[in-house]
């Protein structure tokens, strides 16, 4: 789906919040035709260089900066070969948060095996970007089966351009140039221009690449403080306290010009290779080579990947999250109470040395707290307590239990209001759908695609079903998923608890085994006594 943006916002020169909405003109269910895209109201909130938005020939531009007639398009791509309830959850959350209707690539395609499916996923993305996207267009690519959108589309755009602006200023600072100097005709010609980066999700582990590959050994360090988990930061062999720094291919946003180069390389690698590798492996190696403008979202500002990160997430209501849109804003660590302004230290500080305002907030983590004074307008949101950000997108790579049980925590379900649910469902049915061909021409309404699935059904977690005691854990391959984690317990504390629990379980199992063996021995002795008694009774009397 295409949404127009002006070139000023694409450059990220003026940090801007673009509020976009779209109306898809639906035609008969029996005759799908091309859909017209209408640009709705838009507002611009910018600091320092504020201006009002004006409409000129379906472009968005600021009256306080030079107006460009050049427009670009936002393409929203979801590779999905088949439709199921997981895809419909992704669509439901995207529609509800104002995303444009996506193009489902390779939809209903049948491949002979997994290697062919891997190749065709890369091929379909490369083909679409090459044929349908202009150089200046913005492209969003998401995994279709395990991605949920919890913040509005305009928030994603705003944050994306703010990241670009921050990186642009860092680029100038590397050449001792300030933003004031970076005016037309002032910047020295020897300074290379800043190129808008493609932003990927960030993982805590490098996989499935070899440890000696560029994907694993040549990527930049995380921008998070090197002690954000305390002394155990990046030292935990289970990677729960590793800072995210490796590329995850399931969440992508960036300019078509760069993505076209990325996927051209990936396509050629696949085409020439004897075996077809996953896009995760190939794209991670391309990032490792560090010769294209690619960065990963270290702070979970846009994308929250879940591998080894479930314990970083706490669900809170909006009024409990004191988060600004600036990734560099001061954050008070809820674990230690230490301010990021003091070097970002996250060590286990002495509780008597600081005043922890966070402790006095009416926390409502579902496993430990009950709601008593909540405003009905507040949304229940997943918050990364380590980076201090509310991620716009949640990607459930790794263990899949949360993919089943966390759906009930999302704000559109959590308030349990029948009225709100009806309103949301009506909105999605009225405004939603997807393009089901690789060209983005054939539109299918949401109700026709997903009407048979109840989006307000969800599975209870083992904790909620009473199977797991408060504060304990459930083992899920390939990693333990923590249930009922206290928001004031640090990950290092958590690992010690898990280690103690594992040791206790081992000791309990050993005792149970010993007791079983002892009981079996006693039973055997009893049987032997009975046998001897029976023999004595059967002997003839003298």
From TrEMBL:
<feature type="compositionally biased region" description="Basic and acidic residues">
    <location>
        <begin position="505"/>
        <end position="531"/>
    </location>
</feature>
<feature type="compositionally biased region" description="Basic residues">
    <location>
        <begin position="532"/>
        <end position="542"/>
    </location>
</feature>
<protein>
    <submittedName>
        <fullName>Uncharacterized protein</fullName>
    </submittedName>
</protein>
<feature type="region of interest" description="Disordered">
    <location>
        <begin position="505"/>
        <end position="542"/>
    </location>
</feature>
């Amino acid at each position: 789906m295409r949404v127009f943006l002006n070139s000023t916002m694409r450059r990220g020169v003026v940090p801007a919040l673009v509020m976009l909405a779209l109306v898809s003109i639906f035609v008969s269910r029996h005759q799908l035709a091309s859909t017209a895209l209408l640009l709705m109201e838009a507002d611009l909130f910018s600091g320092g260089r504020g201006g009002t938005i004006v409409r000129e020939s379906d472009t968005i531009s600021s009256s306080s900066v030079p107006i460009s007639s050049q427009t670009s398009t936002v393409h929203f791509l979801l590779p999905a070969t088949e439709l199921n309830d997981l895809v419909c959850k992704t669509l439901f959350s995207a529609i509800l948060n104002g995303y444009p209707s996506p193009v489902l690539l390779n939809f209903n395609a049948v491949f002979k095996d997994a290697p062919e499916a891997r190749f065709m996923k890369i091929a379909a993305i490369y083909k679409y970007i090459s044929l349908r996207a202009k150089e200046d267009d913005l492209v969003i690519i998401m995994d279709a089966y395990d991605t949920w959108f919890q913040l509005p589309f305009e928030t994603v755009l705003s944050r994306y351009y703010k990241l670009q602006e921050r990186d642009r200023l860092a680029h100038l600072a590397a050449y001792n140039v300030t933003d004031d100097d970076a005016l037309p005709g002032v910047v020295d010609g020897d300074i290379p221009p800043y190129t808008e980066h493609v932003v990927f999700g960030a993982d805590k582990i490098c996989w499935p690449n070899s440890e000696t590959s560029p994907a694993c050994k040549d990527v930049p360090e995380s921008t998070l403080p090197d002690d954000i988990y305390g002394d155990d930061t990046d030292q935990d062999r289970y990677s729960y306290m590793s800072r995210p720094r490796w590329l995850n291919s399931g969440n992508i946003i960036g300019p078509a010009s760069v993505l076209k180069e990325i996927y051209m390389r990936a396509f050629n690698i696949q085409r020439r290779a004897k075996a077809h590798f996953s896009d995760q492996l190939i794209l991670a190696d391309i990032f490792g080579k560090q010769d294209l403008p690619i960065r990963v979202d270290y702070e979970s500002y846009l994308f929250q990947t879940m591998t080894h990160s479930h314990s970083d997430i706490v669900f809170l209501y909006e009024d409990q999250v004191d988060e600004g849109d600036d990734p560099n804003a001061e954050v008070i660590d809820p674990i230690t109470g230490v301010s990021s302004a003091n070097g970002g230290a996250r060590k286990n500080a002495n509780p008597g040395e600081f005043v922890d305002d966070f402790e006095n907030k009416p926390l409502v983590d579902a496993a430990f707290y009950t709601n008593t004074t909540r405003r009905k307008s507040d949304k229940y949101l997943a918050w990364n307590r380590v980076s201090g950000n509310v991620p716009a997108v949640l990607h459930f790579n790794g263990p899949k239990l949360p993919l089943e049980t966390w759906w009930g925590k999302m704000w559109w379900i959590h308030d349990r209001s029948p009225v709100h649910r009806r309103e949301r469902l009506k909105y999605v049915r009225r405004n939603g759908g997807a393009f089901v061909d690789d060209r983005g021409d054939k539109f299918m309404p949401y109700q026709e695609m997903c009407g048979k699935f109840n989006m307000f059904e969800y599975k209870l977690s083992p904790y909620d079903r009473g199977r797991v005691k408060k504060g304990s854990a459930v083992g899920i391959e390939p990693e333990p998923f923590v249930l009922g984690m206290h928001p004031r317990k640090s990950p290092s504390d958590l690992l010690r608890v898990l280690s103690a629990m594992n040791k206790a379980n081992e000791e309990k199992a050993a005792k149970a085994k010993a007791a079983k063996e002892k009981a079996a021995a006693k039973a055997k002795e009893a049987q032997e006594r009975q046998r001897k008694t029976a023999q004595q009774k059967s002997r003839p009397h003298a």
